[in-house]
Amino acid sequence: MSFDLNGKVAIVTGAGRGLGRSHALALAARGARVVVNDLAEHGADSESARAVVREIRAKGGSAIANGANVANFEQVKSMVDAVVAKWDRVDILVNNAGMLRDKTFSKMSIDDFRLVIDVHLMGSVNCTKAVWARMCQQNYGRIVLTSSSSGLYGNFGQSNYGAAKMAMLGFMNTLHLEGKKYNVRVNCLAPTAGTAMTKGLFPEAVFELMTPDSVSPAVVFLCASDAPSRKVVAAGGGSFAVYKGFETEGISLAPENVSAEGIAAAWEAINAEAGMRELGSGFEQPTKFAMQAARKLGLDLT
Predict the structure, then answer these.
(1) Of residues 140, 153, 161, 182, which has the active-site annotation?
(2) How far, in Å, CA of 135 to CA of 158, rounded?
(3) End-to-end CA distance of the chain
(4) Domain shared by 26 and 110, yes or no
(5) Do residues 27 and 10 touch, judged by C-beta distance below 8 A?
């Protein structure tokens, strides 16, 4: 498996610091030309983004800064147009930009809920939409969405963040299917790292071990020519895992038992993990249910 990214053009959002900075440096170290995107005030490129560009260039790499707001589609489109005008293509998109507005749901304003959705989810949608047609046309694209354990499993005080991060999986699942024939591969990263967003969440000694640099190898892996697709790679402190969503086999109830009471009576079988499997697309679930119903009627749909 080759991780040589020479000739590839990568956009990394939220790349002025933390995980994004680390991702940008890691991709540049493999030869990619990198667009270091970081939200800038008053329309100029942010100093943080320019600093990362200087780091990359000092090591012999090629990079430019961009201050587009990922929540603004017109700004994102302008960024992509400028990148294509300069380098003629976009091969890699790492959707990393994010922010937090943590409060319990009862105390959270609807504006703070919407703001986190706009930056994390719609920011990823905007950036992906801006590069999607070009990636399909050139028959090559690697897209990384940033999810989180807060989305996969929930986290107290993060209903807005968790909702946005779990939405990444639904977005990924469909884009994987739509991009497959164009060699556009889409994956999610679920990172854990000691950044400004997580400082105070871990003991200091552990915080020091959870470096962004220990996460970025997963991004390089997911951006390679032989990368998988539709995977959720969890990464932190040099540890890596894959999250998988499974569905129990379930059972088809007799017509007279199709009721809440019937579900309750059969709950142990419905909830049983034997035969549990990961489905490949949304259509597989109704197909499974149809097959179960057919067997109940003595029909053969195979």
Answers:
(1) 161
(2) 33
(3) 38
(4) yes
(5) yes
Q: Are 119 and 181 found together in one domain?
A: yes
Mean per-residue pLDDT for 99-126?
97
**In the numeric block, which tokens belong to residue 231?**
């995977």
Buried-exposed string 17-41: b where 16+ CB fall within 10 A, e elsewhere: bbbbbbbbbbbbbbebbbbbbbbbe
The answer as to whether 4 is a domain residue is: no
Find, among 169, 190, 185, the residue nearest to 233 by Cα: 190
| CATH number of the domain enclosing 136 | 3.40.50.720
Distance from CA of residue 251 to its chain's centroid? 33
Q: Is 161 among the catalytic positions?
A: yes
Tell whether 263 and 194 lie within a shared domain. Answer: no
The first and second tokens of residue 248, run together, are 């129990």
234/259 same-domain check: no
Residue 209 and residue 73 in one domain: yes
The confidence band for 42, taking pLDDT boundaries of 50, 70 and 90, is low
Same domain, 190 and 238: yes
176 & 267 share domain? no
Measured CA to CA, the distance from residue 140 to residue 180 in angstroms comes to 10
Q: How far apart are CA 125 and CA 119, in angstroms?
A: 10
- Tokens standing for residue 173: 């699942």
Q: Which of 66, 58, 74 is nearest to 10 (CA)?
A: 66
Find the domain containing 284 and state its range.
255-297
- Under 8 Å between Cβ of 37 and 66: yes
Beta carbons within 10 angstroms of residue 109's beta carbon: 11
- Mean pLDDT confidence for 209-235: 95
User: Looking at the chain, how many residues does it have?
Assistant: 302
Quote the number of domains for the chain: 2
The reported pTM is 0.91
Q: Is 143 helix (H, G, I), strand (E, B) or coil?
A: strand
Report the chain's mean pLDDT, rounded to a whole number. Answer: 93
